[in-house]
Design goal:
The complex is a heterodimer of chains A (242) and B (290). Chain A is of the alpha/beta class. Chain A folds into two domains: 159 residues, P-loop containing nucleotide triphosphate hydrolases (Rossmann fold, 3-Layer(aba) Sandwich); 75 residues, no CATH class. Helices cover 38% and strands 24% of the residues of chain A. In chain A, the strands form two sheets. Chain A has a six-stranded mixed beta sheet, with helices on both faces. In chain A, strands 2-1-4-5 form a four-stranded antiparallel beta sheet, covered by helices on one side. In chain A, strand 4 and strand 5 form a beta hairpin. Chain A starts with a strand and ends with a helix. Chain B has one domain. Chain B contains eleven helices and two strands. In chain B, strand 1 and strand 2 form a beta hairpin. In chain B, helix 2 packs across helix 8 and helix 9 packs across helix 10. The radius of gyration of chain B is 19 Å and the shape is globular. Classes of the chains: A alpha/beta (242), B mainly alpha (290). The structure holds adenosine-5'-triphosphate and magnesium ion. Magnesium ion binds next to helix 1 of chain A.
Chain lengths: 242, 290
């Protein structure tokens, strides 16, 4: 479904990605692992069109999307979360959930003259499903960190998508929310979602992933089944450091 | 005499309220710190003055001034589309200077520093706005329509997208929203209504020259927006009344006339400083910019 072909990227003098090649298969959970600074988030940004690679190509469903604008890539069905949560702090939960529903809000004239009725029920159901115990009119600045993280995941899933990319979805949340999110991911796996996941919890990766890709300096040092990759000597070394 | 003076102040307040509300669309709602807003005001004023001098009916000229200003809004947005933060502001400031320089130097069209005099009073399907009283009524009607339209825009789902661009443009892109288009449209909407305000001004004062649209006057409009609060339309309107109305009260204090000018400047500065110290979000503002 998604092909990463010989992607390279430097920031100034720092070679963040020295050459990445891998494939994400449809209906599979692929985990991207690697030590801090391995270039995982940078790869996400390159796939999403936010960062331009110096070399290489991204192929999504047989189409080259390397030079496409980020919103177009998102509209092709790549839905992602950010490691640093990105929400609109002066807007409400409702505003956020409405935004992911469709792109009808882009029409200026249509929106001034039609006053669509709020269908609160539907959105309240989303909040309940994701365990966000707040009202729709709550402003983002009033949410806890865990609630923001949950809302971001909820939005990423509610947005129509073919591929989910989740950048450390459980980092920084408490144990309760962590197990909620992990259970949710296990459920998504059962529903055959295509997922690319960045996570540092190897036990969880073992449980969830069909395929694991280990990166170091943006180079794939080992890939395969969780059992194979997590036992690999190079992977263990990269994690333990030189 | 006294009432004529009040009516004059009221007309100016109405025009500046439109300017402030329209600037708020760009700065407060879309997060584009446009320091060149006054250029749109000037473009609107010159468009309307020149068209009516060439026998274009007033209502057409009024609309044309909005449309022409928003074409420049589009241009400015295109030029600055990849700029952010300070660089964007600097570029918009430059735009303000360029427009001023063109007004000053393209003498064939604008008569340069001499300005354009004898701009006719509007005649709207037989309603001839000769006195300031009728002009106040007309300007207030236009202002009410503009504020209503802008209110409808910012409260709509579309308006929420402008705010999303302001709060986190990258986050909005990840949701599939074309932020370049939104920024361009935000600036065009803002420019359109500033252009209309320019036309209202030109036909009220009946004389314009480039100095009215010099970049330094952006400070007045920004003060109104900041004191009223970012992303608050009500704030901008009330603030226009306070900022432009209060200093005029000095006229009724027994002061030597040479003191009035400097005193007015001081009041201005004091109001701004007090607001920034005690109410940094302004009187009605709900949002913080980074
Ligand atoms: N915008 C940038 N400018 C300069 N350097 C950057 C930028 N983004 C990333 N880097 C550098 O690129 C390298 C890879 O960073 P990246 O965030 O992709 O790592 P990561 O694998 O996601 O790490 P973590 O597990 O800590 O999230 C790091 O050395 C980082 O400092
Ligand atoms: Mg990362």
């Amino acid at each position: 479904m998604l092909e990463i072909k010989n992607i390279k990227k430097s920031f100034g003098g720092v070679k963040a990605i020295k050459g990445s090649d891998f494939i994400i298969e449809k209906n599979k959970v692929t985990a991207l692992i690697g030590p801090n600074g391995a270039g995982k988030t940078t790869l996400f940004d390159i796939i999403a069109g936010l960062t331009r690679p110096d070399e290489g190509h991204i192929i999504f469903e047989e189409k080259d999307i390397t030079k496409k604008e980020p919103h177009k890539i998102a509209n092709l069905g790549i839905s992602r979360t950010f490691q640093q949560v990105r929400l609109f702090k002066n807007l409400t939960i409702l505003d956020h959930l409405q935004m992911v529903e469709d792109n009808k809000d882009m029409g200026l004239l249509k929106n001034i003259f039609t006053n669509k009725k709020r269908s609160d029920k539907k959105y309240e159901q989303v909040l309940e499903n994701f365990g966000i115990k707040r009202t729709l009119d709550t402003y983002i600045s009033d949410l806890s960190y865990g609630q923001r993280k949950l809302l971001q995941i909820a939005m990423t899933l509610e947005k129509s998508h073919k591929l989910l990319m989740l950048d450390e979805p459980v980092a920084g949340v408490n144990k309760v929310i962590q197990s909620d999110i992990e259970n949710l991911l296990l459920k998504l796996k059962e529903e055959n979602e295509t997922i690319l996941l960045i996570d540092h919890d190897m036990e969880f990766v073992r449980k969830l992933a069909d395929h694991v890709i280990a990166l170091d300096a943006g180079v794939v040092i080992c890939e395969g089944t969780p059992d194979k990759v997590l036992k690999n000597k190079k992977v263990l070394e990269a994690y333990l450091g030189e | 005499m006294l009432s004529a003076f009040f009516i004059h102040i009221a007309v100016i307040i109405v025009i500046y309220a439109i300017l402030a509300v329209s600037l708020n669309v760009a700065v407060g709602y879309t997060g584009l710190l446009n320091l060149g807003h006054i250029a749109f005001f000037g473009i609107g004023a010159y468009t309307s003055a020149l068209l009516t001098k060439n026998d274009v009916p007033y209502i057409m000229a009024l609309l044309a001034s909005g449309i022409f200003a928003s074409v420049f809004g589009w241009l400015l947005a295109k030029i600055t589309s990849r700029l952010k933060g300070d660089y964007l502001s600097l570029a918009t400031l430059g735009f303000g200077f360029v427009v001023y320089a063109v007004m000053l130097n393209w003498s064939k069209l604008t008569r340069g520093p001499l300005g354009i005099a004898g701009i006719e009073k509007p005649n709207i399907f037989g309603w001839y706005l000769k006195g300031s009283g009728s002009y106040l009524i007309f300007a207030s009607i236009i202002a009410a329509i503009i504020i209503f339209i802008i209110y409808k825009i910012v409260k709509s789902r579309y308006g929420r997208l402008l705010e999303a661009v302001r709060d986190d443009a990258i986050g909005a892109q990840a949701l599939g929203k074309n932020i370049y288009k939104l920024k361009i449209q935000g600036l065009m909407i803002s420019a359109f209504f500033a252009g209309i305000a320019g036309s209202l001004y030109a036909h009220y004062i009946s004389y314009i020259d480039p100095s009215t649209f010099f970049i330094s006057d952006i400070i007045v409009i920004f003060t109104i927006v900041i004191v009223g609060g970012l992303a608050s339309l009500r704030g901008s309107v009330i603030s226009a009344i306070i900022i432009l109305g209060l200093p005029e009260m000095l006229r009724f204090v027994d002061l030597p006339s040479s003191m009035i000018g400097p005193m007015r400047q001081m009041m201005f500065a004091v109001i701004l400083i007090l607001i920034l110290m005690f109410k940094p979000r302004g009187l009605f503002g709900k949002i913080d910019l980074e």
